[in-house]
Amino acid sequence: MQFSAAQIAMLIQAKVEGDPEATVNDFGKIEEAKAGQLAFLANPKYEEYLYTTGASIVIINDAQQVRQSINATLLRVPDAYSAFAALLSKYQEMMTQQLSGIQQPSYVASTATMGENCYIGTFAYIGENVKLGKNVKVFPQVFIGDNVTIGDNCILHPGVKVYHGCRLGNNVSVHAGTVIGSDGFGFAPQSDGSFRKVPQIGNVVIEDNVEIGANATIDRATIGSTLVKSGAKLDNLIQIAHNVEVGNNTVIAAQAGVSGSTKLGNNVMIGGQAGIVGHIQIADGARINAQSGVSKTIKTPNAAVTGSPAFDYTSALRSQALSRNLPDLEKRLKELEQAVKVLLEERSVLNSEG
After folding, report:
1. Both 73 and 121 in a single domain?
2. Is 279 noted as a catalytic residue in this protein?
């Protein structure tokens, strides 16, 4: 599809500088873009490419100064990065809206219901009493178990599995290979040393505007619901255990894990490969550094922690700085010990002579 600068400007509320009839049909990075492509400049360190890019249209910040002549048509917005993201979202939405209907072979139970403009891909399975909202896109090889409810405008990418009884809100995107509603890790130790499985009879509830990356796992609750609240963003390869609550607009980077019954507050940020033990609470706005191991409740809102076990970020940096100086401190300590030894010997001699 081809769009003019004027049309794009209307979509993102931009001011046009240059030819409003300039057209693009693709996207490109500003340093590599060619004629017919749209790029953006948000980071000032890439400013040099603004004057050399082959892009036909470039989205830039209102505050960006232009110091040389530019061949591209400029679209000025308050925040170029956000505007570009919004444009990509609109483009993706237009592309997915073209998908509709039920491809064969696939299975849709007779008791399942779906809203208008849904798409069911090849080899998908839709179980009994499933409810799909409007504009839901179910890509090939997706499994949706019995009694699952999925809201409007959701996208389930290839190979997603949603177990029975789980609920997804509106505008939820789940990427390939993710499993929602598998059994929580619940086993009761027995007197003979074996373990008896504790049935996991709850479900998973995912609220509106959540995005979940590829190959993530969100376990169903033992009783009640594992809950991912609205606006949360989960990266690839994340483990969310049974009865966990993930707060509104919380973001979790790849390979992080949250153990059972832990409650994450709103706007929490968790770095990659971080691990959080079970049955604790993380305050709103907390920031957990990559590879941190959190073993205790974080009570202070907006606290930043790092390390394993994780503790205050600033204190941790001081400790790391001191640890780097340990060899030098050891040397100085030995020198002081030697100096003290010499002084004591000299004092001993003086006392014996006196």
Report:
1. no
2. no
